[in-house]
## 1
Amino acid sequence: MLKKPKLSFWQILNMNVGFFGIQYSFGLQQSAVTPIYDFLGASPDQIPILHLAGPVTGLLVQPIIGALSDKTWSPKFGRRKPFFLIGAIVCSLALLAFPFSSSLWMAAGLLWILDAGNNTAMEPYRALIADKLDDDQQPLGFQMQSFFTGLGQVLANLSLFIFPLIFIGSTGSLPTWVYASFFLGAFCSIASIIWSISKTEEIPPTPEELEKLKEKRSVFGPLIEIFSAIKDMPRVMWQLALVYLFQWYALFCYWQNSSKSVALSVWNATPDNKEAYSEAVSWTGLVNGWYNVVTFLVAFALVGFAKKYSAKKVHAFCLLIAAIGFLAFPHIQNKNLLFFAITGFGIGWASMMGIPYLMIVADIPKERYGVYMGIINMMIVIPMIIQTLSFGYILKYFLNNDPRMAISFAGVLLIISAILTLFIKSKNNIKNVKIQPTGH
């Protein structure tokens, strides 16, 4: 087996710079797309279905692109890098076009394109770490991706706070600050990927691997393997799937409604009042940036607690802290106190990024580690799809189309997920486990 060369800290950093642009774009999706829908006249119960792009493209694009990149090799372009570049180009073009959306459905269509581009670039990025780094250096590689995830999303949210102060007024159907934020996102997406591609050489496959790449493979092979793995899935993963159903449903409720909740509770404003609502959106961007800072600060400390107290107890506690924050969030009228409430979600988000892997890793056979990581991604996006299809009805007929009630509803769902976490039974052998951060 070919021994992988040791890379310097700066080489590992350079190969992961592109993750910054991808996550900057995801940060814009989380915090800016709902306000854009509002500016274009969406009713509250339409918002969930308009966000269907994210989970569906995550469910379909990531496993397909991952399988395709596994079977790709070009002496000139490499294996993973072509997908980074294609994804970044698609993403940048969608970000450039987004502010020019003249209708609600044009914006929704561009979101599908944007998310497909992001997922095309992101999925092979995780594989690149395994391709390039040996076992000793892989933790640093994944930790670097975690760092750029936090940095990208924090700066995206900061742009939503700063640009409305600089770029005042409207251009076309949308406030001018939307153009500035999305144009900067387009630049970051393509520039960061080009930087990584130019600074990183991929390891060529061995002659034996090249022969395997030339072999004719079944188009349905990956699908057959996925269904087989689901049939044989350890019980602990089914238990985690139930936790994830409530957990990720709750998060989508928050991301879709946070800006409007803040606008009502602090500014007593609706999207019809563009000036006050823009101020609320920019402040929500700052608040969401803060929870990503909290996540970065506490993520690795949680691993130590998990070793001491068990992963499921730590995750349940973090979900409970996040739930308390969500329940308090819509009742806060002082905008500065929102940072205290969202700190709870920052702690919960830090746990969601890594601790669930500790609960299941000892139960997963090593030869199927890759396919089960893909199934976990399915367990994340399926609840989001269910949310986009069902929550509009719930919001309209049970929550009075009130975004503040949506945040409270999310808090209740997190309490349920915390309780379900305590029923998980796993081997939980987490010593020497290397944590891999999750993405969107």
Note: The chain is about 75% helix and 0% strand.
## 2
Amino acid sequence: MKFIKITFTLALVLFSLTVFSQEEPSIVLIKNANVFDGVNEQLQEGVDILIEGNLVKSIGKNLSAGNDATIIDAGGKTIIPGLIDVHWHMALAELPMTFVLSGDAFEVGIRSTLASPKTLMRGFTTVRDMGGTVFSLKKLIDEGLVVGPRILPSGPMISQTGGHFDYRLPNQIPDKIGNMTYWEEVGMTAIADGVSEVRKRSREAFMLGATQIKIAGGGGVASSYDPIDVRQYSLEEMEAIVDVAKSYNSYVGAHIFTDDAIQIAVKAGVKSIEHGMLMGRETLQMMKDNEVWLSTQPILNDEDADKFPNPESNRKFAEVTKGTDNVYQLAKEIGVNMAFGTDLFMGAENAAKQGKLLAKLTRWFTPYEALKMATSENARMLELSGPRHPYKEGPLGVVKEGAYADLIIVDGNPLEDLSLVADPDKNFVLIMKDGKVYKNTLE
């Protein structure tokens, strides 16, 4: 009895120490800033932003804070919300193409951990990860053990046999029933055929922590054995995947380029078309009518064109990028919901162009339209994940009271010159995520 009393007393003391030793939320006051709030084109000029913990507490002129507050003088520079990339691959961004034949999951983990801080230092405080094993990376970033952006993960990329995410070689065919490839076993991809199998793989992805499902609904560029024009997955299979996503109050994003495949996906209930460069007016109107998002990328066959070791992939890249201008112009005219993503991979040099691709949007949009897309509009798209969205304490992609304190101070005004975002090392003088300052070169 005496032992029980001592144990209870010790537990009570430890509980009290835990409660009363909790740190007060940090307070940061940013003074004298011109603020783009992510929504309105007009800057809020000469205002202060008070940050308490990880949220914006208030915005206004001549704000004050306690003696313990950290004061940052923006010096009249421009504050924008942290940028969002809705088609990123944390696990693949810095992996060479040959890796799929010779790499392993340990190298994926190491390379993605090394790449993670670089993504944040380019000003991308949130990414929607469209396929790969990143659940552990997300967990460690959220716990503060690794520096990086917020991640909304899709988990394994789901593909039919011979589809865009089937990276087997011809000498590995035919498949042995129940046999999994190495990349399936470690959760990078999932090859599934038939209604029951696609249901199972989709449920597994949500079990692992997916916030949405990523499938291949048509042929791809980087893959060797699926022509661009091929429609992948039947209507019934897609409907089964969508049904699973709906049961989790989330949605499906589908890699597709062509009209036929996209129309099937829209009929099935897919809510995000990834890429879509080769579709026309009728399909885009169908997307608008069904409130389907176009998550395409400003990828052109220019000085930044991807170079693949496989000549067929280079041919397909040239074919696809011929449609980039057309799809942006038509989607803007029709009024389709559009999101910004980059889909950069194959090495650190490519991944470093993340901001440069954002700047390329001025080919079709004003700087304001482009920045709004990469902030508040992208955040609006992320809300399709519903309760699976892991960051619900405040809104993302905006600078307003109650929002997450994900902020960038830009030396210059990107609403006048969007090229500033292409060189974040030089022009982003402060980067804050979740109320924590990760970069500050202000004098």
Note: Confidence is low (pLDDT under 50) at residues 1-22.
## 3
Amino acid sequence: MSWEQFQILAANGIMWVAFACFIIVALRNGISLIQLLVAAWVFVTRVRPSEGARDLWHRYADLALPITVIAPAFNEELSIVQSTRALLALEYPEHEIIIVNDGSKDSTLDVLIEAFEMEETERTQIAALQVTEVYRTFHSRRYPNLLVVDKENGRRADAANAGLGFARTPLVCIIDADSIIEPDGLLRAAEPFMYDDGRLVAVGGAIRIANGCTIRGGSLQKIGIADTMVPRFQVVEYLRAFLMNRVANAHMNTLMLISGAFGVFRRSTLVEMGGYYHDTVGEDLELVVRMHRHLRDQKREYRIDFVPDIVCWTEAPAELDGLDNQRARWQQGALETLQRHRGMILNPRYGRIGLLAMPQIVLEDVLGPPAELLGYLVLPAAALLGLLDPMMAVAFFFVSVVFGCVLSLGTLALEEQQLRRTPSAKDLLRLGAAAVLENFGYRQINILYRLAGFGRYFRNDTSWAAVPRVGLGNN
């Protein structure tokens, strides 16, 4: 091959890469725009829920199914007492709390025993779904509906399975131990099950960032916005994920993820499926994908729903040093799930899940991150070298960065119009600024973190990447 032929081949290759990156990013953002419009339609046309907890209680107290709240905990000594108090304070007619101490190396178990006057008790599992050993169980002398399970470390999925084996109620709620549910959140989550004909198997709820909020005694006293930018950027991200993506996908019956921070499930369905897979770092995504697969293989009618009015508050990484591990783990979990369930992708047997939802995950988690990063590098370089019309590079900037700003601001406007959880006009302006600024640096850094998740996946790195925390109410 001559040098001239090589140059032509390289130029054509660069052009094809540039066009592919442009198409992938434009398609991904186009889907996000459709999701935003669908979510807006859902909010406009829905029947608004009751605003007061008292009204909810009078309406549903006699209909609410008993529920068990399972909170896996590993090294959560900073926030476990506040989180447990919040769970005990939930306004629900009949609920049990199971805290699963997953072999914590800190004082998580000790502070629980001291704070809630725990004493060792005998409790038999109905189903042993975990793969590690359960050491002891404790019940509280002060709170008869509080159970603590102490077990060998097996990571979050195994801990959730252990708690699931001790649960005896028709519904179970799986949450993160560093999360706080609003007092009426459990009742709102259970409401869809009260009118269900047996098809509903899971309900997810909105997650919000607790950084900057005032939390005392395990309850949210005042909603606030963090002083630093990294948590603010995450507020905008979470709004996009829950008020745009989840609402739209639930409306189209293609919801593929219920956050591990908060989800309500029919216990019988989880036990029938064998609980969570313990050998993945993305157990929440894998569980819902497998749930779709399991129920469609059995040709059963089912629904997986999402209620945006449920608010669960969770601590987010306050610095980039903690964010990198979290995002790499999320990316690795998505790739593991796609590999495990690759037979569902574009498979008509799985209906809209196989033909729409699974390809969307491929677009978002496999093609999207490298395409966007390559686009930032290749399109400007190709334009400078005269291989590409400079307007193509401008168009890529528009569909990636400017369009990203529009989506974030649109989601923020939707939240303010429908839920009004931002406390003041000043905080709304601060979030609006974050919605714009995140596209200039923070978004690109996140792509690098996600690409690190590709590396972890290909290395088969199953180690747990911890996220530094300062404790609820301390940030």
Note: Residues 296 and 392 are 43 Å apart (CA to CA).
## 4
Amino acid sequence: MKFIVKFFPEITIKSRPVRKAFVKQLRHNIRLVLREHDDNVTVAGNWDFIEILSEQDDQRDAFIESLRHIAGIAHFQYVREFPFTDLDGIVEEAIKSYGDELKDAVFAVRVKRVGNHDFSSVDAERHIGGTLKARCGASAVRLKDPDVLVPIDIRDNRVWMIEQRIEGLGGYPLGSQDAVLSLISGGFDSTVSSYLTMSRGLKTHFCFFNLGGDAHEIGVKQVSHFLWDKYGSKLGVKFITIPFEEVVGEILNNVDNAEMGVILKRMMLRAASRVMEGVSAKALVTGESVAQVSSQTLVNLKVIDNVTDELVLRPLVTMNKQEIIDKAKDIGTAPFAASMPEFCGVISVKPTTRAKMHRVEREEAKFNFDVLDSAVNNARVMSIQDVMADVDQQYQGDVPVVRMPVGDEVIIDIRHPDEAERNPIKASGRQMLNVPFFTLGNKWPTLDQDTTYLLYCGKGVMSRIHASHLMSKGYENVGVYLP
């Protein structure tokens, strides 16, 4: 099995040393990701492309799904390689790959040639195209907008029959740019802004301000892990939790209502500025968009930024809400965000849209900064790889694990809909429901409580977390299905 990776165009216009560094990082990232499917995968570097070789032909779909989400790739091709003998030999191989598609079709052949041959690329296209038309029953040859395109690369004494082309994520390889610390609440905005920095090559760590207890923290850990697992190229990043309940309480008790939202954001920037050094971050990232809410007017944003000397990046600054939601749907974080509680937006009843610095400073003078110091000092820093195991420990309980159901238990697939569609459960004759984990809490009370339900997530970690959580709420009719 062979893939050819083509770089994001902005990589190719860099200076030679920068381009080499970017390609080296991209090779490293591809190797990290694909080793999950094949420990012996070969990722060979090249000035113009990267070659991926694997003997695990059954992993083709898994390779494609993984490569689609690696930043730095413009597109990649699945190719079948064979030795070059002559043009008629290429025709025979083209029939193997495209023969059925060409019948009654309008098609074109595209040949790229590297090396010394006694024919030009145009000569090869004419010969291969004419022979294919005659032998495969094609309707016609049309060079512009053909129904079927037969792309072929002839490279010295070998030929690549390109059987599939897949668009990539684009952007720069993750880790080729400096690290940043993204303030993530789990909603639409912060998940999309985190994705955008990741896709631009910025190694993105996550910082969560816990305002709402375990349930909110678990949700944010889940969506952060999802982002990292899908787009993070397996690079090691950190997840930081800063307990902010007492900070919020201090604001609610001592700060004038109008300034509460702006001051909360200033406290967050203060705290984030103090923990970012621990992950070598060079900037903070927020999901703010101009005037989307009261604290995000230009006047207020200036007052908020005034509290720190660190660079604050706002990838969504000119995007409207629907664009952000559409992007969240595209990258897969929308289902998480739709069920995530939002606490920041309800802190002020009548928030100011034009904060005055002297008023903000007056209100902050009433704030006990020992509370903020305590929050920062009690921040928890963990590897993103470990957050799901940490979530598992937040709800300890003796959860029944069933490998082969024998009664009338109903299996509930709680995986993300994308995963459930790609890898459906194989349990014939067993009643099954699809209830994604981010809707399970709301859906559970509506289920028949006289029935026993077994949660399924694949590896058993996510299902155990949610089964434990339900048991802590008093439900006893739940277990884990782990075939």
Note: The mean pLDDT is 88.
